[in-house]
Specification:
By secondary structure, the chain is mainly alpha-helical. Helix content is 46%, strand content 8%. The chain contains six helices and three strands; from the N terminus they run E-H-H-E-H-E-H-H-H. Strands 1-2-3 form a three-stranded mixed β-sheet. Helix 1 crosses helix 6 and helix 4 crosses helix 6. The chain starts with a strand and ends in a 7-residue tail after the last helix. The mean pLDDT is 94.
Length: 140
């Protein structure tokens, strides 16, 4: 079975992903991860500390934020709310159920207030959908 390593806050970024990102290469990578999880919800997720498979495609011509303290704060707080720790392993579908039970759309503002994507409301929409369907939406 395939396994994907993700840091804490990317669990929420995936819920809000709608095909937009930092560069074409970043979007191609993010779409691949997203579609894998959407089509194969039994995929194992390993929670890691620090940069993951999504960070790996961050454009080199932009200032990276993957090691910023604010990003590690988001990772830690989101894992705490979900009851997960570094090294946790669970299937994506289990993670979807966990998010649906533990997170309200309004929690995104409190947990991700310093994210440049937060004002767009995509993650709030993603959480609302997750609470309803317990699965990722088809991309537009």
């Amino acid at each position: 079975m395939q396994s994907i390593s993700l840091r804490g806050h990317h669990l929420f970024c995936l819920l809000g992903y709608r095909g937009k990102g930092y560069s074409d290469g970043f979007c191609t990578n993010m779409t691949t991860v997203y579609e894998t999880l959407r089509q194969q919800p039994q995929t194992m997720i390993e929670i890691i500390e620090g940069p993951d498979v999504i960070c790996a495609a961050f454009p080199t011509d932009q200032p990276s934020h993957c090691q910023n303290p604010s990003v590690y704060r988001k990772d830690s707080e989101i894992l705490g709310v979900l009851g997960l720790t570094i090294g946790s392993r669970l299937r994506w579908e289990e993670l979807c159920s966990l998010v649906a039970e533990a997170i309200e759309p309004s929690d995104i503002h409190r947990l991700c207030y310093d994210c440049p994507w937060e004002p767009y409301g995509l993650c709030q929409e993603g959480v609302a959908h997750m609470r309803e369907a317990k699965a990722l939406r088809a991309l537009p």
